[in-house]
Amino acid sequence: MISSSPGTSLPIQILNDDSLLNIFYFCRPSTFDESEYGTIWWGNWIRERWWYKLVQVCRRWRHLILGWASHLGLCLVCTRATPVADMLAHSPPLPLVIDHDYEKDELAAKDEEGIILALQHHDRVCRINLKMHAPSLQKLITALDREFPISQCLNTCISPLHPSTTETSS
Q: Which span out of 89-93, 136-140, 154-158 was modeled with the highest average pLDDT?
C-alpha cells in the first residue's frame, strides 16, 4: 500500500495498469441515455472520440487503452471532413461509427467517398447514422447491400431538397 504525508500529491505514474484501466473504463461517456420511452441511442456520437486525446498522453496510456480496446468500447468515427482513407490506413482495426448529417446541404464528394470506403469495411461497422437528401442517400444505399455482422444501430433520415418542397399548395 502506498502512503503519503498529508498535503502531498502522488503522481499518476505510480498507479498500476489495472487501476488506470478501471479509471478509463469508469470515466468513459455513456453511449446510451435513458428517456421516458426507455433506452435510446445518443444521437451525438462525438462522445465516441473520448479516448483520442488519452492515447496521446504517453506511450503507456496508448498501449493500455489500445490493448483493451474491446473492453473500453473504442470506435473510430467517420464524419464530415474525416480523412477516412488515412484513418483506416493508420489506425488500429477498431469498430467504425459512420455519422453524416447533411440535412441542410449537399453531400460533399470527398465525404461520399469516405462513407463508401468505410461501408466497404462492413465487418467493422457498428453504427450508421445518415441524414441527407434522397439523391445523396440513394448513392449510398447500394453500399448497404451486404451484411454488417457487428452493427448495433442503423439510422437513416431522408430530407427534402428545400424546405419549400414539403409545403402543399391549395
A: 89-93
Check whether residue 97 and residue 164 sit in a common domain: yes
Residue 40, strand partner residues: 33
Does residue 109 sit in the same domain as residue 126?
A: yes
Distance between CA atoms of residues 106 and 53, nearest Å: 31
Q: How many domains does the chain have?
A: 2
pLDDT top residue among 126 and 35: 126
Up-side HSE of residue 29: CA atoms within 13 Å toward CB?
15
Instruction: Please tell me whether residue 116 adopts helix, strand or coil conformation.
Output: helix
User: What does pTM read for this prediction?
Assistant: 0.74
Q: List the grid coordinates of 76.
A: 473510430
Q: Coil, strand or helix: which one is 41?
A: strand
The single residue listed with the C-alpha cell 453511449 is: 31
104: helix, strand or coil: coil
What are the cell numbers at 74? 473504442
- Dig out the grid coordinates for 166 from the structure: 414539403
**Domain match, 113 and 166 both:** yes
Q: Which residue has the higher pLDDT, 166 or 90?
A: 90
Res 93: pLDDT: 93
Side chain identity at 96, as an amino acid letter? L
In a domain, 6, yes or no: no
- Tell me the three state secondary structure of residue 97: strand
